[in-house]
Batch of 3 targets.
Target 1
Amino acid sequence: MTDGQQTVRLGVVGLGFMGQTHANNAVEFGHEVVAGTDVVADSRDEFARSFGATTYEDADEMYEREDLDAVVVSTPNAFHEESVVGALERGYDVLCEKPLADTLDAAERIAAAAREAEGFCMVNFHNRVSTAAEVLTGYRADGRFGDVTHVQADYVRSRGIPGVGSWFTNEELSGGGAVVDIGVHAIDFALYLLDFPPVEEVFAVTRTEFGNREDYADPGDWYDETEEAVFDVEDSATAMIRCADDRTVSLEVAWAANQTESQEFLVRGTDAGARLDLGGEELHLIESGRQGTDHVMEAELADGSLDHTGWEGNDKRFLEAVAEGEPPADSTVEEALTVQRVMDAIYRSAEAGTCVSVDDE
């Protein structure tokens, strides 16, 4: 926190791992975590001990009783709408975990509430806050890539299905599987690298090939099946996303696949290209020229790094925007709504077996 900057009074809804992460970051940056909400009593007790915060079972009660500047919502996806809209209606600034909601209808209602609200809503697309992404988008703005026309986006785990019996694999709570959990990051990052052109059409196939197998090999011990286990979501997806002016994204997403793990993104422009990992620090540039002789030039980012990246960096940007009273230009609710529309189109296309339009009305 810079000298003279307002100390933000923060409330957190959803006190699991991500809620505690956001709270720890807020304290690290000199702000005050004053209250938290969770339906689980043990989570409330742990949060109260860790942060000296008042805790509640119901978010509306926290909103009514506490003097807050901002709210972080890190509940399961099905409960985003109620918590985010309630905070926005009281004039609080909100950071919502990705995705914006569990369904497109719910995301539309959040966005509508944000347009009418005194406060703003930002979404935790933390992978944008990386050295490689900052350098690449800076070069893009300078015109070094020419027209950026295609992004190849991979977020593939060889084995990494979240614990069955958790809300991640229960469609009623999550809204979907690998697409909603990790695909949301890949879609957002790819559109971000393209400078968020309007999305027109999607063709996609979703698959459930591993989550229901009795012989599923799980060397990382992610799975942890229980008697109450629910697995009614996809564990992988392949999609082609067509945007305005024939800009495209090819997307591969998998919780589990018989291939090498990858979070690699390839950016193709008319004058140059690049390779980087999702949220990574290394950037590989590819250019061509005719100086001296026809050639291809490849270069690596050698030095330079952001002070704060990932979750920490995005929280810092959110809290600074709250303190300054200025809505952030990055990771906006409207961008998150576009990502939600793409995810919805992926599921509609997979069900229909054909290309579908993306409704941006």
Target 2
Amino acid sequence: MTKTLGLIGTGMIGGTLARLAVAAGLNVVLSNSRGPETLADLVTELGGQARAATPAAAAEAGDLVVATVPLHAYEQLPAAALAGKIVIDTMNYYPERDGRIAELDSDELTSSALVQRHLAGSRLVKAFNNIDFHRLSTSARPAGAADRSALPIAGDDPAAKAEVIALLDALGYDAVDTGSLADSWRVEPGTPVYVQPYFPGQTPEGVGQDEAFRWFFETPGVPVPAAQVKELIDSAVRGVAGGKLLPGA
């Protein structure tokens, strides 16, 4: 059973997962590339269940560890400290931010398979990559709720996936197993299950940036149950790797 969640990266997705974890009664160990002292405000907000550390220390402390850094920084993940750990990969490939990555552009690897190659001693599970941070926060519901949403996961280790499914349940979500890391392209940017289903409509056209951000933060999510997530995953067709970086993604 997960008692402590380690986080490497505390941006929008990482911070949201930390808040959900604390609300679920878990301890969290936060880290980023800038040093534990830069996380003082977030630790204060989260209270006694949270502390800040280096990425290696967060990796060692976590029963499960979330890697939520920009994909171009994946090689900075502490492979030695993460050896033997279940690592949750929330990362997506955005060429405008990450630069072109040949193995991804050629479909030789999915982004998660690329990260798994770096973290050869870890058991990687793809999760939390297809929903923006605001809907991730506001759409969480207790088990059995009629309006509970589901999120896809992918991984090569069934036991690791079972642990992540239990974490999703604790944080407020059902899970849909997409398959292996090689299959995780089905939930990457540009696929039917990526971000948009959790919104009630498209971003308004012809509005300024301020209005667009206001819409983003004021628009509630809509429930996306497991059956709908599975249909969207099954309908995916592999296209050009990578996607456009969206607010909150």
Target 3
Amino acid sequence: AALDWVTGVSVVLGEHMYADTINAGLARGLSFQETFGVEADGDLEDLRRTFLVKAFQRRQVALLNHLTGTGHSPETIAALTLFELRGLPVDDEGDRLRRRYLERRGVVAAADDEMPAFVDAAGLSLSAERFAAYVSGLRRVGVNAEFNSALCRGLLSVRFDLETPFVPKARASA
């Protein structure tokens, strides 16, 4: 819309369970909170942060599982600083998981090299004593995300001919 040659912009969301609500809010120029009213638990920035924290947690549990699977004890893992984690010898998969984790760690805590490498969503250090319970909790986050993904894939498969992506079944047969 900021380009001088653009005369108008119309944003329309399709194939989303809240498409009608979102489209009506966009058309009226409403905020996220105004669009969803009492259904909104915070504003759009809160929602974005929720998803960023979940991404952090998913990446963290993948790295924690890899490190324990390659023989690192909870005590060793919990004691690592960011500097030590960056220098920790790992295989290619561990390096990939470490890089992905570090990309999202800043969502919950500062990136000071002397800070603990592993913190929870509130930025508190992970302790060896609560390691197993913490990892178990992170696995629940993963199960929830996988469930939501499976639900969305299921709804899409009912709505669309998956052999020809994004073509509604009703139109494909016409």
